[in-house]
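Here is the promised in-class demo. Please do not try to memorize the tokens; focus on the logic of going from shape to residues.
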């Protein structure tokens, strides 16, 4: 139990540091912004109690908000993502599959399943985040373009992390 707690604490810290120090400074074509920190929510064990999942999601978003001076934007987006995570897992997997796996990883579930899971989660997060950030539908198409392109880059980075960091 202590080993798992230390492992997830390390993932939390590394994801936040990578986001704040590297990915927040990476803006491609003034449109694409990767949000790698979502990896923490994605990798939490499937049987994480809902209240703990919501608390950790909020804490992650609030930590990013503190470092980026965006009061509540990331906290609300990650909280929504954490809230919808069990539903997304249930949507793309059977109950038997979810009960047989401890944590969602490429090594446990396969690349296609993990890519689908990550894509749903990232798009959910990005839709909420970018439209709350814009707080208007005036630039709807440019905001939608930001969602799509940033989601693609974020999913690619998250998938790469599975092969670079979480190898067997």
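The designed amino acids, position by position:
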């Amino acid at each position: 139990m202590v080993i798992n707690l230390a492992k997830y604490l390390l993932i939390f810290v590394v994801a936040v540091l990578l986001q704040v120090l590297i990915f927040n400074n990476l803006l491609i074509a003034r449109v694409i912004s990767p949000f790698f920190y979502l990896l923490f929510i994605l990798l939490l064990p499937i049987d994480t109690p809902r209240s703990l999942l919501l608390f950790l999601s909020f804490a992650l978003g609030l930590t990013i908000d503190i470092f980026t001076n965006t009061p509540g934007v990331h906290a609300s987006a990650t909280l929504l993502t954490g809230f919808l995570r069990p539903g997304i897992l249930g949507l793309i997997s059977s109950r038997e599959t979810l009960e047989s796996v401890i944590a969602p990883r490429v090594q446990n579930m396969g690349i296609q399943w993990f890519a689908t899971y990550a894509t749903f989660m990232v798009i959910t997060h990005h839709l909420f985040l970018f439209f709350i950030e814009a707080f208007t539908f005036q630039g709807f198409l440019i905001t939608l373009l930001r969602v799509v392109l940033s989601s693609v880059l974020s999913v690619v980075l998250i998938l790469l992390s599975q092969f670079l960091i979480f190898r067997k």
